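Project standup — Tuesday

K.O.: blocked on the structure for the chain from last sprint. Re-posting the sequence here as requested.
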Amino acid sequence: MKNDKFYKTIKEIEKCRSKNNVNWMDILRLAYEKSPKEAVKIFTKIHSQDSKINSLAKKLTKLK
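H.V.: unblocked you, prediction finished:
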């Protein structure tokens, strides 16, 4: 029973992230249209933070 709730919640998160990824890409396109140089600066910062998050996620997967 607990597993059902867990997987249901995971599926809900997946749906939300999917919709939000579309929004995120729309914002990115708009930023590049309006101010490409500033958009690149911001995207570089986002990418850097994403890399840190991925590194932390890898650490979590190794914990037992």
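K.O.: great, moving the ticket to review. The chain has one domain: 2-62. The chain has a mean pLDDT of 88.
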